[in-house]
Each structure stands twice: as structure tokens, then as C-alpha cells.
## 1
Amino acid sequence: PFLRLLEAQLQDQKREHEEEVEALKNQVDAMKEELEKQHQAFLQTLQLSPEAQVEFGLQQEITRLTNENLDLKELLEKLEKNEKKLKKQLKIYMKKVQDFEASQVTVPAERRQHERNMQVVVQRKEKDFQGMLEYYKEDEPLLIRNLVT
């Protein structure tokens, strides 16, 4: 069971690494394309008269700023949608907290302590410890032997 857990963790890390490498390769390719475009534009501007070079440069800057502006508007829209969603979730959670607090008034102290203990356990189960391993003390020699081999 321990080796399978370790193998699964290793496979997950390998998959994540491969995805990262692929994303970086795509980013490098995009940068190469952009560099090539800029190089071609630079070669074209060298052949133009000084006035035409200035006008071409201004046109390029206007295009760049327009694209950047559109990207920022898109980002703003996404953030506004996310803000609305989070506000809705906050209202829902606030209502749940109020309901829970109202129910706590009627629940005996002994039961409240039991519920708190259960909440702590649930919180611990939800945490994701990458690289951590849970095992029984009596299985330690077997685990160490498997790790060494």
C-alpha cells in the first residue's frame, strides 16, 4: 500500500511537471513568433524614410496599446464576475454561520464540544500534504526497507 501511494504521488508530480514543461514550450514558441514579427517589422522600418519610420512606430505603439487595453478590459470583466460570485458565496456562508450560531444556543455544551471536535477532524482530512506519508508505527521497518531498495 505504501509503495502504491508513493508511486501515485510520483506519477502526479511527473504529470504536473510534464504539463509545466509543455506550457513553457508553448510560451517559448509564442515568444519566438513575436520576436520574428518584431524583427520583420524592424527590417521594414529600416527601408522607410525617417518620417515614415516615425509614423510606422506610432502606428505600432497605437496597436500595442489598443491590444493591451482590450486585454485589461477582459481581465476587468473576469474580476467583476468573480467578485459577484464571491459576494454571493459570502452571503450564503454568512447565512449558514448565523443559522449555526442560532442552533448553538439551543444545543447543550457537551454536544457543542463533540461537534467542534468533528469539525477539526474534517478540516484535517481536507488538507493536501504533498510529499507527506501517513503510516502505522509497526509498519515503519517495512516502509524504510522499501524506501531504501
Note: Residues 50-106 form the longest helix (57 residues).
## 2
Amino acid sequence: LRKQARQLENELDLKLVSFSKLCTSYSSSRDGRRDSSDTTPLLNGSSQDRMFETMAVEIEQLLGKLTGINDKMAEYTNSAGVPSLNAALMHTLQRHRDILQDYTHEFHKTKANFLAIRERENLLGSVRKDIESYKSGSGVNNRRTELFLKEHEHLR
């Protein structure tokens, strides 16, 4: 059970690092998108969203498996009758529980940060588009106004 737990913990560690990198790249790609909205691929955000969802499900499954193995280790520790062995097993079990708790906390924190960034981007994205369209539209209107004023001056 300890071997399985260590294997799952290592796999979870790798997945959490990849998950964190994905969330970081999402926010940095969104930040860069402000300047060059015409040059970024349209499906970039949605493909990252799908990748996020897939990785989140995989991590949740691994956390569930690790929880099951920790529960089995707890059952075995409670059934073992040797007092000296029991203390060592309890220490090992507590260490695996702490690792599981740390991974769970890190996953939920990263997921919450990603969702907050995505929600903020969705809310502010439309505002940015409105501002850009206003700026580009007002530029055209200013040019037209200048041409009309110039024409008016010529007619005078």
C-alpha cells in the first residue's frame, strides 16, 4: 500500500506541476491577447479550457485513489496488533495523509485561481472589446468630422 501511495503521490506531483503551468500559461496568453487580438488564434482559449477540464478530472481521480489507499492503510494500521510496529505505521500513515492534504489544497487553490482568472477575463473581455471598438469608431468619426469641417471652411 505504501508503494502504491508513493507512486500515486509522484504522479500527482507531476500532474499538479503541469496543471499549474497550464493555468499560468492561460493567464499570460490572455494578458498578451490585449495587444494583438487579431493575431491570436480564436480557439486558443477554448482548447486551454478543455485541457484544464481534462487535467482537473485526472487529478481529482488520482486524489480519490490516493484517499482510498490511505483509508486502506488506516484499516491495516488499526488491525495490526504489534504496538511498536503500530507506532511506525501510524507515523507513516500520518505522513501520507499530510501529503494528500497538501496536494488537495494545492489543487483546489490552483483551480480556484484559474477559474477566477477565466471569469475575470470573460467579464473584462467584452469591456475591452467595447473600448477598442469605441476607440476605432471614434477615430473614424473624428476623421469624418475633420473632413466635414475642412469642406465647410472651403465652402465658406
Note: Residues 1-23+46-121 form a domain with the Methane Monooxygenase Hydroxylase; Chain G, domain 1 fold (CATH 1.20.58).
## 3
Amino acid sequence: MDENIYQAYEDEIQALEEEIWLLTEKYEDMRQESTFFSDEEILKSIKSLERETQEETKGHESLSDLKAQLESLETDLSFLMKFTGFQFTSHSKQTVERTRNRMVQKHRLSGKCHSLSFQLEFQLLEMQNNEKVSAVVSDLSIIMESREDSNVSKFVSSTEEHGSLLSFFRSLSTYAEWYEHRRRTFLHFK
């Protein structure tokens, strides 16, 4: 009988440890949730950070090195935006479920590709088995500017059904680039 009491206590301790771990993870997720910030807020934060680093650079990297790194990152971002045509305007994520080897997050993403606006909502399920991590996209919802082109609406429906983000971004990039060429051509003839 004494062993049953000890086992019950051990089970209760293990359940409490699991609950503490889950609450800690939930707290960390809430702290790290990404939200949309305007360009003005980002610039204010950068300037504030620059002022703080000017005061705290003693014994650390020089301010000029940090500025060079920032300029390099801005150049890389600018290149990627010009190369792909994508400009993301907002992103938010919310953790829906989290256990030791499984996490479900809900993402909202909006932006433009050349002149076409889009919004995405999807859930990302990440599962970890041993050292391997797999991710699955589900509940994909795509909202684009209303276009009369039925092929685009068919493509969006097919992409939502298959949950293929990669094919969406690849195809949108190509379509938006040619859409811009067609638009400029028609403007030329008007």
C-alpha cells in the first residue's frame, strides 16, 4: 500500500512538472509573438538602438562595425526585395498548441509582389522525431486583390487545397512580373 501512495505522489509530481514546462513555454511564446510594426516604428527603434549602443560600446564592437553590419543587412534586404518583387508588410504568429515534440502555430502574412497585394493565413504543424523536424502547412487561406482573371482564382483555390506555399510564392512572383509588363504595355498604347 505504501508503494501505491509513493507512486501516486510521483505521478502528481510528474504531472506538475509537465504543467510547469507547458506554462513556461506558453509564457515564452507570448513574449516572442511577432507583431506588425510600421516603418516609422522600426526607424524609431533603430535610432533608439543606435543611441543606446553609442553609450554602451565600451569594450564591445565599435559603432562603425555595427553600422556597417546594419547597412549590409539593409542592402541584402533591398536586393532580395528587388530580385523577388516581394515586400512583406506584416507578419504575426500565434502558438495554438505546444507539447514537447509538437507545435502548432497560426501565421498571418500580408504584402505585395510587384503591384499585386496578397494576404495569407495558415497553420504550421512542426513535429520533432529524434533529431528530425518536419513541418506541415494546413488551413491555408489566400486573399488577393480581386481580378477578373479566372486562372488566378483557379490557381489560388488549387494552392489552398494543396497547402503549397512554395508553389504559391514561385507562381505569384512570375505572374506578378508579367502582369506588370502587360500593364505597362497597355498603358503605352492608350
Note: The radius of gyration is 24 Å.
## 4
Amino acid sequence: NTAMAAQMTDAHRRFLQVLMSKGITEASEARKLHHHCCATDKVYYAHDKLEDFISTINRHLQPLFMQIRKGMSEEDGRAHYAVVNLAETEVTKMASDYTEIELELFRKTMDLIILSENGFASSTDILNLADKLKTKKMKKKEAERVLKVFVEDKWLSEKNGEYTLHTRCIIEMEQYILSNYQDVARKCNICHSLTVQSQVCESCGIGMHLPCVRKYFKAQTEPRCPQCNDYWSCDIP
């Protein structure tokens, strides 16, 4: 099988290197990068073969327990790619970059976000946790600095003082979240990936990403749940 035997070229290595340095890359940027890497190394390029190009890299990453994964922005539905370490599925994969107290603040913030109704946690609620940490108390000013770093490193997203999980975090931590928050974590009924910000059917409890809700109900005159067919009572975004 020629596809299975595909070699990792310099173009593949260059693509992987850039992806790892960025942490997460939007699909349109990944397509541009694919073209650039192939052109630089003078190898065959086809605009519709990005997935095949990534599959070749993933086959070579398999023994290293790593993988390039595709995920969706919960805000606008755009596709993104991130390199995931499959050997470490817990928050401990962040341990080399952050101190124990910073990781505890991240875990507590994650709790607030996932256990919330809308997938967000206010900065006030997060900062109130700072002096209740088990590792040691953290001053609010220090907690503000740490939250800023989590946003810069693309683990959290912030808008008007409200925090949610960044697309990178959802792609990397999906299995961890699904197994550690079994009672509340759910997959989107449409795209079947983890949903943090979602609308939920009042009748049967299924959830859908907001972009998936928009897409699914676009052509329907009366919005009905794809699972139980009851009227979808949430406002369509």
C-alpha cells in the first residue's frame, strides 16, 4: 500500500514543527502552511490533500504516542489543528510549564467552567478561589497574572471578564474532561465532539455546540430536537 508506505519528508517535518510551536492552528492557516512547506521542499502539492498529508505525519507520530488532531472552535465553528500528547491525558501534561499552585488554579477554573450552565466562569469567581487553594494561598494580583498566561498560552479564552476553555484545551483535554466530568460533560449530538458551551434539549438532555445549532436549524421552519423531536426551546443563535 503506497499510502501506508508514505515517507515523512522535510515538508512534513516543517509542517509539524510549526504546528507544535504555535500550539494550535486554524484550518485556513494550516492549508497555507501545507502549500508553503510543499513549495519550499519542492514536493508534490494538492490543495485538497491536507488530510492525507496530516495522516502521513500521524502514522510516524504513532510510536511517540502523539497525534495531530482536528477540532472546532465553539465560538464560530471554524476547524483547528493541534498536536496532542496521547501518553498524558491529564492536566499533568501542563506540569512542565507551570508550578503546582498554577496548575491547581487551572483545575479549579476548569471545574467552574465545566460545571457552569453556559460554559463560562467569571473572573470574580475564579479570583475568589485564589486564597482557597490547597497548595498555598495565591494573591489576587498573582492569580490575575496567571490567568493572563493561560490565555496567552491558549488554554483559556477570555471575553469581557468571562473565561472559557480555549479550542486548544478542548482538543488536547477532551478524553480527560469526558472521563473526569462524566456526570456533566457531553458530546455534541451533531459533530460528536466534546461541547463545553452548548444548548441543551429540555426534554431529552442532548447538547449541541452553538455553531452546530445554527447549522442544523438553518433550513428548518420549526426547530425540533434531532434526538427526541420535541420543540427546541432555546433561542437559535
Note: The two ends are 46 Å apart (CA to CA).
